[in-house]
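One-letter codes give the sequence; each number marks local geometry. A record appears below:


***
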Amino acid sequence: MADLVAQGSQPTERWRRRLPVGQAIVVGRRSDWAVPWDGQISRQHAELRFEKGKLQIRCLPHAHNPIFLRGDAKDLFEISIGEHFVIGGTTFSLSDERANVSMKVPPPAEEQTFYIEDLKKLRFRNADQRIALLSRLAELIATAKDDRELFSSLANLLLAGVSRATAVAFVSAPNDGLEAEPSATDDLADKSRCPIRILHWDRRRMTGDDFQPSDRLIRESLRNRTAVLHLWKTSSGPEFTVSDEADWAFCTPLPHETNQRCAIYVSGRFTSEVDETTDASGEVQPSDLRDDLKFAEVVAASLSSALENRQLQQRQAGLRQFFAPVVLTALAREDPDTVLAPRETDVSVLFCDLRGFSRRSEQHADDLIGLLDRVSQALGVTTQHILDAGGVVGDLQGDAVMGFWGWPLAQENAPLLAARAALAIRAEFLRAAAVADHALSGFQAGIGLATGRAVAGKIGTDEVVKVTVFGPVVNLAARLEGMTKILHAPILMDEPTAAQVRNYIPTDEGRVRRLAVVRPYGMKTPVDVSELLPPEAEYPQLTDTHVADYEAAVAALVRGDWADAFDLLHRVPAEDRVKDFLTVLIAQHNRTAPSGWDGVIRLTSKE
């Protein structure tokens, strides 16, 4: 394995990245490995491939400037460990230096612990420079594509902000094993049970030697959750250094932790010159590095927030399969037990059944995986439009989907949201039907919408629970969906939902047609059923005049004037299958209302 180190003209223009073996990597201003600081580098400038200890470099055809190797322009060449090439003002070096946490680093000549709260109270001595660097933190965190890029950017910032630092590492260790104090009998085997992992590292200059952070220092900082400084060279202690680049090192932990504790490790050297960070005699004191420790602590706090936020985003991404966005938003604001607790609320329920599934099953019995994929896509249309309209998917069974609105937050416009989702579902299936080889062609959807009181939340048994809604309104929505087969209408609504749509959805978005007053099979309460239609511009087969004629026919039917109802129905186009239900009913009774007629049609089956 080897690293590629890019170094621009400024100290902060730098990164170190591990080269994957055999994989092509593109370097450029906007590419796999971006070099945004150098305007002489094209967006995609060079392709790199590391194999058998050699790095092959190929200049891409559209690169504006040449690649130089030992002063000569080259289009295709390879380099070995320790060699470099140049593009514009940036040098790219191939390095096999490694960072290995070492338990062989001797005890320090002097140690001091700095509590984070005490560091926060300190004032920076060179505040302008520190603040200028720290002002870049938000942008670096926001623009980093992944943790690797984030660590690389923050390593550069630390090297620029801690002028005497020679190397930086981001380290982590599992919680298990850190709490116990090391005993005198601890050996390498005992300590290996809790290994220190280096997440990323970098150093100011290439030395050819491995970087060896102190295992003792890192463990002490992580175990005690404090910033710890080790000095191996002081005026009062032994005159030795751990290596040519380390007179001192400090480690500061990140506040955020899960099952891992993380920290920033910085090592460096003292210069021989007297400067503002040493006393007048030139003697080195532990307090001389407080500024650097405070700077690293601010970076650690910002990195901790970024990692915590990224972890939350990853967790939410995983939960999106189980919770609707509206539920995730509520969970982020309140206690989950409070949000998910079942409670009574007003909801609008959408029940959608996929039609064409049985026929497709017969046709594709020899390709069940392909059928499953097409059915999943068809169900995905429904679930996506429910979620897009701010709803919750309460159930998904076989070829049916149930969604609802009005929970976890009250939604006064819940009927309108449900209606818009239903119209969007119908429109998408119609578009698919117009394309012969479309994956969704051959599928249709029957949709029932109902509004009323229900219990919503985490419902189930001690063993199995799900976020859903329970109550008569759910059953009514399912019954309305079943009635779409009887009435030949794709979308049916109960009266509370229809009233809201009539009052608040403009006719150029959706229309309502009252169909009949029915008593569903097995139910005692009559239901005033209406159809939700697309606007006339999208569904010109049924004009607003036709809708008015049909509703006039329903009014005549309810009051018992069946002959008038029959005449009005004949003004509706023959291709409108919805009118068939009433036309047949009236014809069967010789256009005369039966004795005791109360305006309610009794259904003899669920479908």
